[in-house]
Known about the structure:
With about 450 residues, the chain is mainly β. It has helices at about 60-65, 90-95, 280, 285-290; strands at about 1-10, 15-30, 35-50, 100-120, 120-135, 140, 150-175, 180-200, 215-240, 240-255, 260-275, 290-300, 315-320, 325-330, 330, 340-355, 360-375, 385-405, 415-430. The strands form 2 sheets. The chain has a 17-stranded mixed β-sheet that branches. A two-stranded antiparallel ribbon has the order 13-14. The radius of gyration is 29 Å and the shape is globular. About 15% of the residues are buried.
Amino acid sequence: MSGGYGTQQGIDRSTDRRRTSVMAKLSQQVNPRLDVDVSGNFVQTHSNFIPEGEQTQGVITSIIFTPTSFKPFFDPNQGRYPYNPLLGANPLDVLHNWEAPEDVTRLIGTFQGTFRPAARVTLRYLVGIDDYRQEDKYLQPPLSTSATFTGRIDNPIRVSRKINSDFTATHTAQVSPSFGLTSTLGLRYTSDHADVVSAAATDLPPEQTTVGGATQFASQGITELRTLGGYLEERVSLRDRLFLTGGVNLEGASAFGPDERWQVYPRLSGSWLLHEEPFWRRSGIGRRISSLRLRAAYGQTGGQPPSAYSQFQNYLNASFGGKPGLIASNTTGNPNLRPERQRAIEGGVDLGLFQDRAQLELTYYHQRTSDLVLSVPLAPSIGALNQFENVGVLRNKGWEAALNTVNVNTASIPSSRASASRTRWRCRAGRRTRCPATSSSGAARSSAIRTPS
């Protein structure tokens, strides 16, 4: 069990942060066949920020639109800071009187049970919960930007809860001294619930710091996403030198329509410890290269759409003549939307030199993402402006190199690491849409497939 408390004072006025955390873990061997682990982590933070202009008003925007001849200091005769003669608020008034606090409370808990009914069979069940609550406030006091400004306060609250449940069953078999098998069956369920409630008010009375002005309004948005999947995996070991792993994943998500919900993703990988071969040890190059591993892998993965409800025709609240009503969203639903599918292949070599005091890693990879989900503009006569469709292809390829060295074999002198990489990124979409704005330097490489060690 451990805990911590810390405070940070910001450089600017009225900026600080407090953090409290408590962590506990309990491990118990119930009997020789059953192990139980329970852990929890509670974190609570309070931060005071400075509005910088992300809500159209703030310090940065005020400085940009403030002439250098303007004197922003407090005027005791008027009892306030003078107004910006051009646009925006007085930056000193923002620093002293505006408020933008944030409170975050988070609880993460896990339970894991491991049961070994037989010597070669292991059953493992893991359930975890991530409970998150974030409360923000953004206060612009009355008369802070002009003599006619009546003030505004926003108070959004976000509550989310993520639950994951995993079950794995593993069976190992040593068929012969040089041939081993490891079979794994896995099941996974996730649930993601997010609730955002935003309350706001304008026409605030003096010294009002809560949502209670003459004009009040509120909104709420709830998002739920569930996924269910399973996988089968077989790993083959030959003489503890050659390793082959093959598997297939079956995944389904509530964000997709019934016809496209379930998808299959295969994968295959292998590695060869060449330095363990007798012919390598007897060769002259084997005395110079202490270890050598060749590896290759192929795999497929899927992604989620930009919205959990992209398959549906969504409606928005509206009022007409003082009565409630609904209007169609500008983004129409697409029940045929499919997950983005990434196919990746990679190969590489790991070299150990000078008794593994220098290790070199070289990797080449090529990824192709098809069915890229992009927003496609529609004809206004349809009644909507755009729709998410599978219309793009993204290619990403390159190489990576890393060098690890043990400079001096003592605990007091650290090792060193140098790395380099190069990526080429290319996207192709339909005529009616555009690829996402990115570049080769910003294209991220997925690590969905990895060769076994």
